[in-house]
Amino acid sequence: MFWSRWVKEVLPNLLPRKKWTKDQRTLQIGDLVYVVDPKGLRNKWPKGLVQEVCPGKDKRVRMVKVKTATGVLTRSAARVARIPLDEECL
Predict the structure, then answer these.
(1) Residues 6+ apart with CB under 8 A from 69
(2) Among 18, 67, 68, 75, which has the minimal tally of Cβ within 10 Å of its Cβ?
(3) Confidence band (pLDDT; 50, 70, 90) for 90?
(4) Domain spans, the chain
């Protein structure tokens, strides 16, 4: 029951849909993230730490390099979900 509620209630909130209406905190080096796999199960998404951020021409973070248990992955910033670890999760 825990995993069922986690997948349905918590994970969708990690990827808020406020794309154009509200600025979000950008990904930074050292952030803990889930690497989103649309074809995979949400409770199987790998976790990792952001090692490098690659901004686009508009100075917004577009790509990130994430260190996971299996290696370093390069993903679009839209395909990672930051896990809040500070006071914002209270």
Answers:
(1) 46, 48
(2) 18
(3) very low
(4) 31-85
Expressed in angstroms, the distance from the first to the final Cα of the chain is 23
Residue 74 half-sphere exposure toward CB, CA atoms < 13 A: 3
Q: What is the mean pLDDT of the chain?
A: 85
- Name the amino acid, one letter, at 37: D
Q: For residue 80, with 0-12 CB atoms within 10 Å meaning exposed, 13-18 middle and 19 or more buried, which class applies?
A: buried
Who contacts 40 (Cβ-Cβ below 8 Å, separation ≥6)? none
- Give the C-alpha separation, 90 to 80, whole Å: 21
Length, in residues, of the chain: 90
The answer to whether residues 83 and 14 touch, using CB atoms and an 8 Å cutoff, is yes
The class that CATH gives domain 31-85 is mainly beta
Tens digits of per-residue pLDDT, 36-45? 988 888 888 9
Please tell me what DSSP assigns to residue 26.
Answer: P
